[in-house]
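Researcher: I'd like a candidate sequence for this fold, 124 residues long. If you have to choose between options at a position, lean toward the conservative one.
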């Protein structure tokens, strides 16, 4: 089992940047595929980025492609989400999720472990 703790959220003006971190417990972190999801009020939780165990594969939906970058540091048990050129529609609670698998997973129900989330607010 792994515990995930997100940090780095906050308030930013449109066009600004934030870097979120997801710190994981446990010694098998490198065995987990990790993703970032977000959920805005009244909306479903959507994937924003996913990364495989070896960082060999990543996935981004069109809504964030070219603006968000997911990366991981297995030595630090941490996954990052660099968010640039933020827009008001990026406002949401951002969650990281994990599952022990070699596959790159892109749907919510495939992930076993979730963090508590961190709020990102982008104002125009």
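Model: Candidate sequence:
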């Amino acid at each position: 089992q792994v515990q995930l703790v997100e940090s780095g959220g906050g308030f930013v003006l449109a066009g600004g940047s934030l870097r979120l971190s997801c710190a994981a417990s446990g010694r098998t972190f490198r065995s987990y595929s990790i993703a970032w999801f977000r959920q805005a009020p009244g909306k479903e939780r959507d994937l924003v980025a996913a990364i495989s165990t070896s960082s060999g594969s990543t996935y981004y939906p069109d809504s964030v492609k070219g603006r968000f970058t997911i990366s991981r540091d297995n030595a630090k048990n941490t996954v990052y989400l660099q968010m640039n050129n933020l827009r008001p529609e990026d406002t949401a609670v951002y969650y990281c999720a994990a599952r022990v698998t070699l596959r790159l997973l892109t749907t919510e129900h495939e992930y076993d472990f979730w963090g508590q989330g961190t709020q990102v607010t982008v104002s125009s």
